[in-house]
Amino acid sequence: MAATQSELIPRVKLGTQGFEVSKLGFGCMGLSGAYNDPLPEEDGISVIKYAFSKGITFFDTADIYGTGGANEVLVGKTLKQLPREKIQLATKFGVARRDQSGLLVKGSPDYVRSSCEASLKRLDVEYIDLYYQHRVDTSVPIEETVGELKKLVEEGKVRYIGLSEASPDTIRRAHAVHPITAVQIEWSLWTRDVEEEIVPLCRELGIGIVPYSPLGRGFFGGKGVLENVPAVSYLTAHPRFQAENLDKNKSIYDRIESLAQKHHATPAQLALAWVLQQGEDVVPIPGTTKIKNLEQNLGALAVKLSEKDLREISEAVPIDNVAGSQYFNGNDQNSWKFANTPPKESRVST
């Protein structure tokens, strides 16, 4: 007997406001480029619909993904072919401009509102389930930004509020204005700085955790190891994928591959299972343009790891052994020039 959609992927709560999502989400960014050439629209729609057919109901996009909001438009067109009430749609605002000279991050109340209205139009929906501030505008008090988001919730245009790559102080201050449902952060076997302060704080406040790039931007799926990084990919400029660093990092992949064999899994499945099993409040959003990779990610849900297994996997990737920064160009906002990786607010408490 075939499994029903609800049996394929467990449902979990993000935050304490009643927001329920599939335990595994889907990051839509790559469908509009960044890691590869953009997919033809019909192919992108097919990938999202296939993910939904397998039980994924939590889809993540942003107004900065793709040219002119192309990713939101793609997701919106797909939603027309799916039951909207069964979808949990997340999008983001905050990067007002990006070009070779750098970028402009904005969080003023009027910008929050205009961005929301623009996303609603591109997505062609009446409400956004989870609306994140993509990157924090440190020139605007977070209380003002979240205050406007709170108004959007009261108006029914947004259901839940999120932050992405915010510092502990910002998260705490934001949560005091209106409950923050989720914090989106980079978290994978080779990016674990969030474990020191961000994760404990989210759990203290009852905030869900949404890891992006849970496969190390494809590294644990073999990117740069089993297959070359495409020339069009912005990963060609990522420090960890630079030739000398990548050669050193391949030993990390080899160790995970060895452990994966013990668990009858692929390296990607083991790496994703490790993230999935960091807690019920953790919902990773790996993305892909290929159905075979999506199937592999779904298979990670069947990999069961004990506490001992989780420790063994963690110890196989000592953070001080990872070659290259997780940031582009030293994470300098003025030198940033990659459309899909805006700079992060410092996660260090002040």
How are helices and strands ordered from N to C? HEEEHEHEEEHEHEHEHEHHHH
> How far apart lie the N and C ends?
55 Å
Total beta strands: 11
Shape by Cα distribution = globular
The structure class reads alpha/beta
Mean pLDDT: 90
What summary fits the major beta sheet? 7 strands, parallel
- Hey, roughly how much beta strand do the residues contain? 15-25%
Spatial ordering of strands, largest sheet:
3-4-5-8-9-10-11
Number of helices: 11
Radius of gyration (CA) equals 19 Å
**Low-confidence parts, pLDDT < 50 over ≥5 residues?**
1-7, 330-342
Helix content: 25-40%
Keywords:
single chain; alpha/beta; two-stranded antiparallel ribbon; 35% helix; seven-stranded parallel beta sheet; 350 residues; 11 helices
